[in-house]
Amino acid sequence: MRRTGFVDAVDALGGHDHISWIFDDPADYHEVADRFLADGRGAGHRVLSFVHDDRGGPIDPAEQVRFLADATERALADGYTGLRVAGDATRMVATPEGRAAFGRFEFMIDSYMARHQLSGLCGFNRAALGDAAVAELAGMHPLAQPAATPFRLYAAGEPGVAAVLAGEIDPAGHEQLRAALRWVALEPVGGAVTIDARGLGFIDHRALMQLVGHVRGRGAATVLRVGRDSAVPRLAGLLELRDLRVVVS
Predict the structure, then answer these.
(1) Residues 24 and 12 in one domain
(2) Are strands 192-196 and 163-169 parallel, antiparallel or unpaired?
(3) Are 158 and 68 members of one domain?
(4) Is 0.85 surpassed by the pTM of this model?
């Protein structure tokens, strides 16, 4: 079982963990990445460190996932317990088009990580990208630093569940949610998209309508799993969204 939530260190992460690391000084990133990889090596993983140079254009998300999936299978075949990768992706996400492609890749590879022995650290330079961009990127990870992003949308790893939504979404987060929903593939099952929102502390009415409207555009209803102390059932009742079902668990 992998870890999720907010952390301020990369120590003791497991074989499925996926963390973003926001930094202002590249020396900070290198120190953290070295520790992350050393822990993986100690756990018997093959480790890879990527330095991303300027590219001719955005990455191909599916191609990158295939590359890492193949590398994971080779590591296991060679007797390692898994694969652990770390990379500073700042230059790959310097443009809106680059961020969109990388955001799609993040969700796709996170789905793979949830089910296979692959763990990863993605570094993003806040000084180069700005607060809004790093919040969007950090929000695609199960693990992030406490001040990096207000909410996270990431792969569930559970059959029939399209994604996990956790954190808090107020008006300041509407644009970030809009970007995240453009990037992820929320696949309907039986005419509905199920989202695990038990870690969602707050969502305002406009964000909830935005989420449901996005899923409606995919021709599906929205099913939100929430905790017993969630305010979402009451909010959903007030909005009377016919294609939203809230399941309390």
Answers:
(1) yes
(2) parallel
(3) no
(4) yes
